[in-house]
């Protein structure tokens, strides 16, 4: 009962913060933390510093690129490519983030492409919530298809005594997630009103300040002449993004400290900060324009939101971690077929694929759940989207200036819920079918 009261407090803070807008989502997380720590005596966990720093590093580089004209140049190119069939961005965006995650082993690489997805879709009249939600969902689901992700490595380790190899896991998870996400895109591509029919967006266009800024952006992006520094800034930014993917795929290229390669969080932060510095040095954008741009503002709002809400959620769950693990383990013991549901619930609560695998896979193996079932339901560890406090989710909401990507009035009716559930159900179905075929 006490847990439900505390959980309701967390949901209340998310709801009120989302309604206030701006940095409200983050600072209202502070109210929840105050209640949990001073009121209930919870020890606060460590704030999600690495996630915040990764967002700041990527946003710094992206904001510098925007000030140098690079974002407009990228949008100009993408707009030309998508001019004949702009609806394909709902399929292209998740394909890009999926590939990045598979190669890098972390879904946080999605931060670098979210502002581009948001602006390309908006300027082509496409509802940004469609490609943005699927891009974020794909960046999560691709974890189970990445050979270097911690959750996949742990899965192979647990199942190795049953003669299960990395190839056995990936031959199910890769096609299952690709097919599941692809099928979900078909449905999501029809979700919501078109921007021309969206009353909220049309009201924004009637706002003189918003309309003036939008017109200035369009004129800057549609000019025939492209500054050479804009092209250079894009080249630097894309090289940095690809370098992050390469370093994630090949840990041997990273510096080794105490016998271990440098972590991906530090790798992303260093590479992206360096990219921002190179753009400022070589392209010489206006210093004030960097911090006044829409990318910088949206990114910093996302940092504050992650700071408050993610810290609040983690503090609550860590305070009840033992009870949560026992409850979910009991569910699996009572009915092994509910393993996928147990994985989903635990991943929602602990916000970690690796922790979910480490907690439940040993239980499933001890209970005799067959390895093919474990592999087929592996994708269920991606329940991050259920409660909208995951970094890329918050960032996507802030990057969408149309307001089409949002947290709903009742929290759970947010823009990512249906895309996430569709992707989950379809991926599980394909996973179970493939497991039946292979075993």
Structure description:
The protein is mostly helical and 439 residues long. It has one domain (2-438). Helices cover 71% and strands 1% of the residues. It has 21 helices and two strands. A two-stranded antiparallel sheet has the order 1-2. Helix 3 (49-67) runs parallel beside helix 13, helix 4 (70-82) packs across helix 12 and helix 5 packs across helix 12. The longest helix is centred in the last third of the chain and has 26 residues, at 294-319. The termini are far apart. The mean pLDDT is 83. The chain crosses the membrane at residues 27-44, 51-68, 88-111, 132-157, 169-188, 232-251, 263-283, 295-313, 333-351, 363-387, 416-438.
Element-by-element helix/strand order: HHHHHHHHHHHHEEHHHHHHHHH
Q: Give the radius of gyration.
A: 22 Å
Total separate domains: 1
Side-by-side strand order of the widest sheet: 1-2
Largest sheet: 2 strands, antiparallel
Class of secondary structure makeup: mainly alpha
Chain-wise SSE layout:
Blueprint: H1 2-20, H2 24-39, H3 49-67, H4 70-82, H5 89-104, H6 114-123, H7 129-141, H8 150-159, H9 166-188, H10 199-205, H11 208-222, H12 228-249, E1 256-257, E2 260-261, H13 264-283, H14 287-292, H15 294-319, H16 321-334, H17 339-350, H18 353-366, H19 371-376, H20 391-399, H21 417-438
Antiparallel strand pairs: 1-2
Helix pairs in contact: 1-2, 1-15, 2-15, 3-12, 3-13, 3-15, 4-6, 4-11, 4-12, 5-7, 5-12, 6-7, 6-20, 7-9, 7-20, 7-21, 8-18, 9-21, 12-13, 15-20, 16-17, 16-18, 17-18
Keywords:
single chain, 439 residues, mainly alpha, 21 helices, membrane, cell inner membrane, transmembrane
């Amino acid at each position: 009962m006490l847990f439900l009261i505390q959980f309701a407090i967390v949901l209340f803070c998310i709801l009120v913060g989302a309604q206030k807008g701006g940095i409200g989502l983050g600072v209202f997380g502070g109210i929840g933390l105050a209640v949990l720590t001073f009121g209930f005596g919870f020890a606060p966990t460590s704030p999600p510093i690495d996630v915040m720093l990764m967002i700041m590093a990527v946003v710094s580089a992206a904001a510098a690129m925007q000030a140098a004209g690079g974002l407009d140049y990228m949008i100009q190119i993408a707009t030309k490519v998508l001019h004949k069939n702009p609806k394909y961005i709902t399929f292209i965006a998740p394909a890009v983030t999926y590939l990045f995650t598979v190669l890098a082993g972390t879904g946080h690489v999605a931060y670098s492409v979210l502002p581009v997805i948001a602006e390309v879709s908006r300027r082509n009249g496409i509802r940004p919530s469609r490609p943005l939600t699927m891009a974020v969902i794909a960046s999560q689901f691709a974890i189970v298809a990445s050979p270097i992700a911690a959750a996949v490595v742990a899965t192979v380790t647990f199942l190795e005594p049953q003669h299960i190899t990395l190839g056995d896991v990936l031959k199910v998870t890769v096609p299952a997630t690709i097919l599941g996400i692809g099928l979900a895109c078909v449905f999501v591509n029809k979700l919501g009103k078109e921007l021309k029919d969206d009353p909220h967006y049309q009201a924004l266009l009637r706002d003189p300040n918003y309309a003036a800024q939008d017109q200035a952006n369009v004129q800057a992006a549609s000019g025939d002449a492209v500054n050479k520094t804009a092209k250079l800034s894009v080249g630097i930014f894309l090289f940095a993004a690809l370098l992050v993917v390469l370093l994630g795929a090949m840990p041997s290229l990273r510096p080794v400290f105490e016998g271990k390669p440098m972590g991906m969080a530090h790798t992303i932060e260093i590479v992206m900060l360096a990219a921002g510095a190179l753009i400022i040095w070589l392209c010489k954008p206006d210093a004030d324009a960097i911090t006044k741009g829409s990318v910088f503002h949206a990114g910093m709002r996302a940092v504050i939101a992650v700071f408050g809400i993610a810290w609040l959620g983690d503090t609550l769950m860590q305070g009840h971690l033992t009870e949560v693990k026992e409850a979910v383990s009991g569910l699996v013991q009572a009915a092994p077929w509910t393993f996928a549901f147990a994985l989903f619930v635990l991943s929602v609560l602990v916000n970690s694929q690796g922790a979910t695998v480490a907690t439940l896979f040993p239980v499933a193996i001890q209970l005799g759940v067959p390895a093919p079932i474990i592999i087929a339901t592996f994708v269920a560890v991606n329940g991050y989207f259920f409660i909208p406090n995951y970094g890329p989710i918050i960032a996507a909401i802030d990057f969408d200036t149309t307001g089409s990507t949002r947290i709903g009035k009742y929290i759970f009716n947010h823009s990512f819920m249906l895309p996430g559930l569709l992707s989950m159900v379809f991926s599980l179905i394909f996973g179970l079918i493939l497991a039946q075929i292979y075993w």
